[in-house]
Amino acid sequence: MSETNYNPFRTAQAQLDQAMEVLGLEPSMRELLRWPMREYRYRLPVRMDSGEVQIFDSYRVQYNHARGPTKGGLRWHPDETIDTVRALACWMTWKCAVLDLPLGGGKGGVTCNPTSLSTSEKERLARAYIRAAGHRMSVDRDVPAPDVHTTPQIMAWMLDEYETMMGYHHSGVITGKPIPLGGSAGRNEATSLGGVVVAREVERVLGHPIKGARCAIQGFGNVGGILARLLHERGAKVIAISAVDGAIFNEGGIDIPAALTYYNRKMQQLGGFDGGDATTNEQLLTCDCDMLFPAALENVITESNANAIQAKVVIEMANGPTTPEADKILHQRGVFVVPDILANAGGVTVSYLEQVQNTYNYHWSLKDVHSELERRMTSAFKDVYAEYERIDGPMRLAAYLLAVERVAEACRLRGWV
Ligand code: GLU
Fold first, then answer.
1. Dihedral, CA atoms, 384, 389, 390, 393, nearest 10 degrees?
2. Ligand 1: does its nearest atom lie under 6 Å from the Cβ of 72?
3. pLDDT tens across 174-228, in order?
4. How is the chain split into domains, by residue range?
């Protein structure tokens, strides 16, 4: 979130407006889809280890539930506002629809600096959030999951608080749980693996092979780090990686297993890693590479650097990394952008599979989860690519046209519009 006056919800609305214009949607439908259907704010008092009580602002946005219960992660971030959460909930609505999941879109956020919280403070914050927001969640209503700075352990505390409050077990109310509490095999690497399936589809349609591709990955956390490993294992040359404290560049290819060990040992930092030259996150985005994977936060490819992007393919593993102005520039320059609502949908797809398993009180094997994820991601890519060829326009617009039409149809069938 590099520009201070940047509002991601305006970006989300602008992307939606463009699709609704092309689809020629009726004015009342446009008005309905431009805003969340339900949104909640909570002030959470949490006792810190010092004994003092600190108050945290938090949100849950249930953007649109025409296709099913709202689904989407919970982010803990110092810059979280109602508008970041609205934007992310809006994107979740289209993401679930692109994958044709029977789910609506939602998102939650807590404004906090998770790196300054102790483990017990995190637990009390997670439980406080559920005590405030849990009454409006259920497997049939709204289902949270991990996102930036939230983990399976945080999901476990939230589930325990929820089930204690309600007095019954219903593990499908939260996904991304640890496996012993009903989590799915394969959920941890699902977003990254989905990105690899997308890269493989790009290879098929554009003929840019993954093997030997020079890849730059911004973000080395749960999505970027696992993605780097999976690409490395498939013979890609990962030449640039980054964490919050800076980036590493190595034209010859970075030793990813060594970088992962270093990153985990250094508490999620890469500064001082000697497997390449130190550089910045900004330089990583514009480095000479074949494929760029923004896998950190929103608003990193903007009007100010879009002309300098050298990658031929951008696969958006973060939510909202590219602004609409940058999108235009990249499209004019012939850069092939696979949008977030398709590229990073592997996570929510396996979350959905987790809910299905929870409903049946059953566990699928890793092999079954992976093959179902692959089947669904491949099929969604093919649908979007067919639409891209039909409109001869950007992949983002193609994905939006499919998704928004599916949501609009559900709204019409319900008699909402
Ligand atoms: N936080 C992830 C996303 O942005 C996953 C959401 C989910 O599993 O519900 O897609």
1. 90
2. yes
3. 999 999 999 999 999 999 999 999 999 999 999 999 999 999 999 999 999 999 9
4. 38-169, 190-343
